[in-house]
Amino acid sequence: MIPIEELRVRVGLEADDTSEDTTLAAMMAGALAFVETQTRRYFGPITEDFEILDGHGGRNLWLAEPPVEPPVDEYAPMTLPPLVIVDERTQPGANPITLDASTYDVRTRNHEGWLTRFGGVWRRGYEYTVTYFRGYDDLPADIRELVIGLIGVKWTLGDAAALRSEAIGGYSYTRFGESDLDAVPGGHETIAAWKRTVLA
Fold first, then answer.
1. Are 133 and 46 in contact (CB under 8 A)?
2. Which residues contact 109 (CB under 8 A, 6 or more apart)?
3. Which of 1, 67, 149, 192 could be disulfide-bonded to 184 (CB atoms 3.0-4.6 Å)?
4. Residue 97: strand, helix, or coil
């Protein structure tokens, strides 16, 4: 999500030096995965996903991510679906009823998203499957700088970084930890600003 040419320059390579592209790509994947784990959020490309949520008798149903518009090439302009599709079940395993999109409002603010029910509540004990698109064409500026900062920290370690690299199924990635976050100015504050509260 960050152009590899930019990463080359940010770590001190020449813009046209492709010798470390594989390493930089692996570091970017590792840094982004670390940030997602720390914040409990998704920062990947825009994709369709769903959540299964329990109704709690209130007007608001909180989502893990703010819904975004689907990519323009996903649908023909005249067949664009609602921003959010909600299936309601009286209990897990029951037949779903797709709610009319006019019965709830999709609301977002900053990096939060939720559904507000019109003239009613999200019924206690009912199960709601919420389908929507989430993600980013471009990373938020502070997350982008945090990822670049984490890569920079690892890059300055040189060969020592290899000691914290692992391979799973032929895919190599670089592990990041709290000590790396400590070395990025404002890193902890950025994580705190984006961290999603998980309600029990």
1. yes
2. none
3. 149
4. strand
By C-alpha distance, which of 56, 42, 47, 176 is closest to 111?
42
pLDDT of 70 reads 87
Hey, what are 32's tokens?
Answer: 């982004």
The CA distance from 55 to 84, in Å, is 16
Task: Calculate mean pLDDT across residues 87-110.
Answer: 95
Task: Band the pLDDT of 110: cuts 50, 70, 90.
Answer: confident
- Contact between 78 and 163 under an 8 Å Cβ cutoff? The reply is no
Of 59, 198, 66, which is closest to residue 132 (Cα–Cα)?
66
- Give me the helices (H) in the chain, please: 4-10, 21-39, 141-157, 178-182, 187-194
Mean pLDDT, the chain, whole residue set: 88
pLDDT in tens, 60-86: 999 999 999 988 765 555 566 689 999
The H helix count followed by the E strand count for the chain is 5, 9
- At residue 29, the 3 state secondary structure works out as helix
What φ, ψ does residue 105 adopt, rounded to 5°? Answer: -120, 135
Place of tokens 């959010």: 84
